[in-house]
Amino acid sequence: MATDTSGTVKVFPEYKEGLRDLDGFSHVILVYYFHRSKNVKLTAKPYMDNCQRGIFSIRSPHRPNHIGMTLVELVKIDDDTLYIKGVDMVNETPLLDIKPYSPSFDMAVEVKTGWMEQFLNGKRSKRMTIVNSEEDWLHLK
Amino acid sequence: MATDTSGTVKVFPEYKEGLRDLDGFSHVILVYYFHRSKNVKLTAKPYMDNCQRGIFSIRSPHRPNHIGMTLVELVKIDDDTLYIKGVDMVNETPLLDIKPYSPSFDMAVEVKTGWMEQFLNGKRSKRMTIVNSEEDWLHLK
């Protein structure tokens, strides 16, 4: 997670009732549409690497169906608005779903992370593993 | 995860190239369409509880957009087929996306799980926390 970045998520009034009971969760998974990506690639260069990787082995927006998901910290809910931390989406991203995060469903132990391993275990600079916003992927910055 | 259940995921030939490099990962997140759910509810009774909860605080298929996601163990990849463990989807579920699981993006620590807590920390029977297939939700069994 991009742990320092705060943001808000607003749901349409007709879905507000669906937020009931969510405030007890410390983390939620946001499922959204990569609306700024206009093409589909089968391989792409991930932000932390320099070679082409299969699109299903990276988190690039240029994927078939353009569905993104991000784990964020839920700070509070006020009416139709979620206050969150750890945002890596661009502004105005259309939200498709919100799911409660539960380690019993969403956490794996004894994990291997393939090509990412060399970047995530500290062999390269830490900055490369933190800069993971959609804007970076899209080269908007 | 429903750790004991094995299954396969087949991608269309035109997307096969996107699987490159994925075999180094021990776990993947499957994003799919809840094709058997024909209605949208804003509250529903989760399989492990007896009262209505907001749809965004549970993992029910009857949610707006009908998008599901499940963390599974990746056993191996053979051509266009992923062999996986920990499946909780119904057969023939249409796949929307495959994402590599990485604890640095997808794992949270110091987690609170709201209404689920009483069920997940062992206060109720373990069976209730394991029976979490989509078929149970849909009352197909």
Folded structure, characterized:
The structure is a homodimer of 141-residue chains. The first copy, chain A, is of the alpha+beta class and 141 residues long. Chain A has a domain of 97 residues: YaeB-like (Elongation Factor Tu (Ef-tu), domain 3), CATH 2.40.30.70. In chain A, 13% of the residues lie in helices and 28% in strands. Chain A contains 4 helices and 7 strands. In chain A, the strands form 2 sheets. Chain A has a 5-stranded antiparallel beta sheet with strand order 1-6-5-2-7, with no helix packed on it. In chain A, strands 3-4 form a two-stranded antiparallel ribbon. In chain A, a hairpin with an 8-residue loop joins strand 3 and strand 4. Chain A is globular and about 45 Å long. The interface between A and B is large, with 58 and 58 residues.
* SS-derived structural category of chain A: alpha+beta
Estimate the strand proportion of chain A.
Answer: 25-35%
Q: Report the uncertain regions of chain A.
A: 123-132
- What is the β-strand count of chain A? 7
Task: Name the CATH superfamily classification of the domain at 6-102 in chain A.
Answer: YaeB-like
Q: Write down the overall geometry of chain A.
A: globular
* Widest sheet: strand ordering of chain A: 1-6-5-2-7
> What is the CATH topology assignment of the domain at 6-102 in chain A?
Elongation Factor Tu (Ef-tu), domain 3
* Assembly state of the chains shown: homodimer
Largest interface: A-B, 58 and 58 residues
Radius of gyration of chain A: 16 Å
Blueprint (SSEs and pairs):
The structure is a homodimer of 141-residue chains.
Chain A: E1 6-10, E2 27-33, E3 43-44, E4 53-54, E5 67-78, E6 81-85, E7 95-100, H1 103-106, H2 117-120, H3 126-130, H4 134-138
